[in-house]
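From the shared-data thread, chain only:
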Amino acid sequence: MNEALHVWALVPAAASACCVAADRRRVRVPELAASVIMLLAMVDAALLGIVPRPYWAALLIVGAVGLAALRSPRRRHRPRSDDDALMTVHAALGLVAMAALLLAMAPASAAAPAHAHGVGAGGTTGLFVVASIAYGAWSAIAAQRAHGRLVRAQFGAMGLATVVMAAAIVV
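Structure, as tokens:
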């Protein structure tokens, strides 16, 4: 069951990446790169298992920091629309949420011993799952407030992918 949920999470993640790519009104190359990296990590984790999940998680965190730095208001000379700013925050937080879920999915042998920091793996997994569900709820709110069909679809699809991945971990 949990493998099926992992595979089903790929559908909205792919739809999210397609929505970013199809939005011709705005050039969002960094956000598209973030979506593609996230999708590749999910495909590998769900189907292939080539790259260890902690390495994917590290790459996703680096991508989130890079995206935030690249899209920083200090680096921009012209103001960005509310949708553009929200898209950047959404993509960066999506990278962080996916990194957390990949770590929660990691096999026990890849995780630190449960007594290492006084918190068992179940506690951190639960925290990651709750944070991912919160991200999914925030995505739904962002989708309602966004302008443009593709932007709304991107927010909704990425939120759904994250919630389905969290459900796969719980099951």
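Confidence is low (pLDDT under 50) at residues 108-119.
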